[in-house]
Amino acid sequence: MTIKRRLFISNILMTIAPFVISVVTMWGGLFLLNYLSGGELEIVSRGGAGARFSALTDSDLQAVLLTIGVILFFATIVVVTNRLLTKFVFRKIMQPLEMLMEGVGHISEGDLDFRITHADKDEFKGICEAFNNMAQRLKVADEVVHKNEQNRKELFASISHDLRSPLTSIKAFSEGLIDGVAVTPEAQQEYLHIIKQKSEEVNAMISQLFLYSKMDMGSYPTNAEVLDIGQEIEEFAAVSDEDYRARGLAIKIVGTTSKVNINADPLQLRSIFTNILDNSAKYKNKDEATAKITCLAENGYARIIFEDNGTGVGEEALPKLFEAFYRTDPARNNPEQGSGLGLAIAKKALERMGGSIAAENVACGGLRMIIKIPIIGAEVEL
Description:
single chain; alpha+beta; 5-stranded mixed β-sheet; two-stranded antiparallel ribbon; 7 helices; 9 strands; 57% helix; 14% strand; elongated
């Protein structure tokens, strides 16, 4: 039963009840008077000119009539008051309900900025505040959905763009072999070498995309171990030094901490270091560039700094470097130099370790990557 119907029935009952009480009271009064007069109370008509009560004195009759009048007067007051109070209560209930219905209508039509204003401090105040909180959460969720959808569209567009270049090369050189353009064994070997190289680029790109997708879904396995971060950096630099020197990048360890343990997956940690140094090697603006590595213990974190002497990036691009396929900066806009997922994967891997990564330009030129990973047993300062 609706509130409106309940109030209507209550109003009807409160309206009829006073009249029923009045009639019962009147007849009860007459019965009492008849009993007090010894059963001699009767009504005698006088030719239609009026009526009188035998065995009753004038004062008794006046008392009865006065009693009935008083009852009817108070009954009328009760009815009027009841009507006014019911209307007042009903209005206090209906106004918030109508506002809530209006709000639901706005939300269902997609207007997530609509809010209810209810100034009265009654039972509906909490409901209206809960409605506004719900609308705010729906707006935030809707923005996240739209952002994810936009990211998904950009992801597909970037994948198509990045795959097109190596696939076009593979197709062109394959057709060259089929059509007999490469007639000498040397030319054929060169064509095959290019096809193999472009195939490896596509394979690496797909592997990076698969890894990023698995991390994004939170389903990529992590085999965390207790690692001495200083030792890990030194071992990584020793193993990788020759390869990066061949690419024109010298690795220098400026300073590392000793016996500072972190909880991390060693494979993912080295992948993070590789992604950072690969960018330094790809985007260097000189034949021989340098990447310095520093590791400090600071405020409960192992703070690892990679600093190169390359071109750096625009200030507006710094916070976007860790977005998938971001290449807005002209110096980093060549899809043949990478998948565009390296730093995005590094960020997700560090977040899974409870750490973070940020980028900043070096004053004298170059880019600085700052990694923070919690130290085991240390009290972290946020």
